[in-house]
Amino acid sequence: MAQVKITETVLRDGHQSIAATRMRLRQMLPVLEAMDDIGYNALECWGGATFDTCMRFLDEDPWERLRTIKKYVKKTPLQMLFRGQNILGYRHYADDVVYEFVNRAVDNGIDIIRVFDALNDPRNMEAAIKAAKDTKSVHVQGTLVYTISPIHTLESFTRVAGELEDMGVDSVCIKDMSGLLAPYDAYNLVRMLKKHLRVPIELHTHCTCGFGEMTYLKAIEAGVDIIDC
Length: 229
Prior knowledge:
The protein is an alpha/beta fold. It has a single domain, classed as TIM Barrel. 44% of the residues lie in helices and 17% in strands. It contains 9 helices and 8 strands. Strands 1-2-3-4-5-6-7-8 form an 8-stranded parallel beta barrel, surrounded by 6 helices. Strand 6, helix 8 and strand 7 form a beta-alpha-beta unit. Helix 7 crosses helix 8. The longest helix is centred in the C-terminal third of the chain and has 14 residues. The protein is globular and about 45 Å long. The model has no long low-confidence stretch (mean pLDDT 97).
């Protein structure tokens, strides 16, 4: 079995999910260098709700937060969550705005951009993926948003993942932000993706339904390359 890599998400999704994204930069600073020494695949520290919350509730500059984290984290790639055509907001933005935001994020320290769309519509991820690829300096990760419905099948997830691979993504993440992905469903999905894709597969899940740990275990048995924690 190949070694499984770990992406640490406590600086972004950890406090977004359990503390309404209210962690301040000064609370992060004491642990950044220690986290940098652990050997994570990446530290997800930006994007998602952090940008909005910094300005709306914390009176912090989100760009300064990113630059400061980069000063302390010298060895581990920094990752952000990018909402496709929504960037980090709550509506669609023009392509030129997407391009400029991607470039500014990279200039200020981002190394990995995880691009997702709530509808799993590759058209809503295309501009962000192309902008990130055009920088020629970041890892671009496409995303499958996991949910359960008659149309969310192994075949439909594999089709979307194939379209993302054709766009040039460097890896694909199964993003189970609701914690709905059951262990054996994770096994079957990872096996299907590994069969049809050439790029690495990452899994992001939550323990909302109580089986997050077992979901990771079965995904690892199926050959997943990276897991989030």
